[in-house]
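Hallway conversation turned thread

IA: we were arguing at lunch whether anyone had actually written out Transmembrane protein end to end. Turns out nobody had. So, for the record, here is the sequence (534 residues) and right after it the structure tokens. Reply here if something looks off.
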Amino acid sequence: MSIPTNGTSIPTRRVIVDDTDAQIQYVGPWQVDSRGSQDRVGNFGPTFQGTLHGVVHTSATFSFLYEGTDSKVFGTLQAVNQSGAIDPRWTCSIDDRIVPISPIIPYPLNNWPLCDFTSIGAGVHNITVRIVSEQKHFWLDYIDYVPSPNPTIPTKPAFAQIDDQDNSIFYDDSWSRMGDISMYTSRPGGRMTTNFTGTGVSWYGFIPTELSHPSSLATYSIDDEAPIPFVLHGIPASDPESPSLYNQEFFQTPLLPYGNHTLTVVHNGNDEQTPLTLDRLVVLDHTANTVAVQTADIPLNTSSTAAPSGANSQSAPLSSGSIAGAVIGALLLLALLIVGFIFGRRWYRKRSRPIIQPLPGFVPPSEPRAPLDLDTTPNRYSVELEERMQTYGTLTPVHVRRRSRHFNPEVRSTITSMDFDLEPPPPLQHAAMTTANTEQARGSMLSQADMSPVPGRSTGLEVYGEVERLGATSRSTDALNGAEMDPYSSGYPFARASPGISPYEQLVAATKAEEARRSQRKSRGRHRQDPGYQ
């Protein structure tokens, strides 16, 4: 037969706030112990959720604001009375009113009430605890309080406590009350059923040293699913005089979808084995809006002072997700650095690559042209051009090698591109007769007849001979006897362009013809045909 608890009304369920909850405000060099270094201290069970906040060798403060009535502060007690002095020392106050602390015993214990605020009216309250530590740690584990039935600021706590006397729990007739501590059963098949709303639940009981010590078995099931076994470890046989063990977590369900669930627990032991006890149920709600604080945000004390049970190991272990995230972040950063180095190197090479500039004197076609200055000097090809015109009537070279002529420095002049536009061409001008050029002048007069092209050959040089003959008839004999053409002061003979020959080609042909005639006169007027021409 299933019976409810003896209570006639549903007690108000207390809310548990763990030390890692962001609602607790810490001031000072607090340390975080998430490795359970104090879990084996005393016989009041391990720490809640395996975490503690501690401080040593300094002063510190923490505060907590809540809306409700009664509240308590739990932690690990390590106070030692040395000549009447307690270390560490702390004061408890609520709403700036100091409240006496709970009695201190000279034994280290977990889950000890450090501050007890009872008979507090409903409303918003602020808990403040100030600590001074010289040699021993002060450890905070959790805070619990009774929330207001109608809070002005709705909250959704991460942990809610269901007492063993809560009317939502149904026991069969095998269950009995053990003093004012808990409910228990030693019969096989003893059953308990309750409903809860959340994402999981943990079962807390105690192991009495007054009853049988051998371990026993029990099962639990969620929503009529297959039962899951768990072991009830009794008092160790090696220490039969051990005191009772309190605040023992017998099992914790896997993470469940948030909602209403049914928990059923069955005892499979007997009177010769450890009984199944229930002190409280802690309902978990992983969708709560009270987010746990990150341990990395709390400064760690690196003091090397010894503490019991490995209390110096204060750094929190990294989860596999944190390690994977760090590795992925490092790889992404390395990839970005490599890509940046490659692109930066390409950019630097492109920037430092030499730029090919035009050669000195180069004028792009789109820019205005400067006058063309050609410095002409008789050379080995002077006679070739003349003889090529006389023989073939064209200036196109046939790429035939020939013997070099003597260099003739007598004729030198400058041609500019502006001379091509003169209409009509300027006449020949002759320098005055001097003693230095008398013989040259006579030779020049005698060679006036040679200015005409070779008979029988039609070339573009006919105009040149015609211009010379016209110039010769207009000058008197006396003037010719006393003058010689000065190549440096006289203009070149010009004529209108004949068909097929440009003005530039006419100019070049005339210049080369003059050079050839002078060279021939020095060779006594002998005309030799170049054997290189075919």
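OS: looked through it. The chain has three domains: 11-155+288-309, 159-283, 374-522.
IA: good, adding that to the notes. Residues 374-522 form one domain.
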